[in-house]
Amino acid sequence: MQFDRLKRREFISLLGGAAAVAWPRTARAQQAMPVIGYFSNRSPDAEAYLLQSFRKGLQETGYVIDQNAAIELRFSEGREDLLPRLAADLVRRHVSVLVANDPASALAAKGATSNIPIVFASGRDPVEIGLVASLNRPGGNATGVYGFITELGPKRLHLLREFVPNAKLIAFIVNPSSLNAQEMLAAAQAIGQNIVILNAANEGEIDVAFATVIERKAGAIIYAANTWFQVISERLVALAARHAIPAMYEWREFVTAGGLISYNTSGGGHSGCLRPRRVGRLCGDPDRGRFLQYRIDSRRRARCRRD
């Protein structure tokens, strides 16, 4: 999943345009080095490849961290309850722009400020979760991309059935704080696949979920898209391997850690997918102060990875 250079450049251009709205030309003259507040619900390790791509894209637009731009990094390690505190801390530091790389972080950023521009990436519908008013006219101070990440669940189910066609029961493990499992349940019913929904929002519930998988003799597992699952990816892969249960994951990092197969967007994630014409319009008119929202259908960019 190599990060597409053109798409990454467009995302960083949007970031630059957002910073321009927050800091008019006279203010930027006084603030020689813009400060980017970057925070995520992942851990530093889980965020590393995204942050690396972000830094590289920033350089392509002329901004080099610690030379002509600064960055403040915050990670909640999968603890969503910490995100409001992290967002508030970045706001107190008067950052030029907030970069929120997941829905929970974006919501925390929105709750912390109505003035500082927010550039977000979300795999969940930003209207549905209350991040923006609408896709066409989002309003407020947030802009970003919607990658349909969570909507790839049914496709993961179809792919896993091809790998494990004799699985009479498939377990769908989900963090209930970030995803409604009804879509997956409906997809399973439509193809006649028995499925059990197992909630896991902490380490103890992961153990309980796996005990249920073994007890009910599930033939395979699908993990829902969730940042906390990325934080504990190595543990999830190890549990599946220990019990010899085929499992489908969200990101390629699970496969790198030894998992069987993953299915998600190609490129460096949905944060790189922006329409260049509208991004250019936003960057070229920094005093307008009006943000645009782009809806990107990531299913057209989906890619399968397996060992």
> Averaged pLDDT, please?
75
Low-confidence stretches: 1-7, 20-31, 267-305
CATH topology of the largest domain: Rossmann fold
Order of strands, main sheet, comes to 2-1-3-4-5-11
Q: What is the domain tally?
A: 2
**How many strand units?**
12
Helix-strand makeup class: alpha/beta
Going by CATH, what is the homologous superfamily of the largest domain?
Response regulator
Q: Shape, please?
A: elongated
Taking the alpha carbons of the first and last residues, their distance comes to 14 Å
CATH structural class of the largest domain: Alpha Beta
Report Rg.
20 Å
Major beta-sheet overview: 6 strands, parallel
Q: What does the model show?
A:
This protein is of the alpha/beta class and 307 residues long. It folds into two domains: 5-149 and 266-300, Rossmann fold (3-Layer(aba) Sandwich), CATH 3.40.50.2300; 151-264, Rossmann fold, CATH 3.40.50. It has twelve helices and twelve strands. It has helices at residues 5-22, 25-30, 44-60, 83-92, 103-112, 153-163, 182-190, 203-215, 227-231, 233-242, 252-256, 276-284, and strands spanning 35-40, 70-75, 97-100, 118-122, 142-146, 169-174, 194-199, 220-223, 247-249, 261-265, 293-295, 302-306. The strands form two sheets. It has a six-stranded parallel beta sheet. The protein has a six-stranded mixed beta sheet with strand order 7-6-8-9-10-12, with helices on both faces. Strand 6, helix 7 (182-190) and strand 7 (194-199) form a beta-alpha-beta unit. The longest helix is centred in the N-terminal third of the chain and has 18 residues, at 5-22. It is elongated, with a radius of gyration of 20 Å. The relative contact order is 0.16.
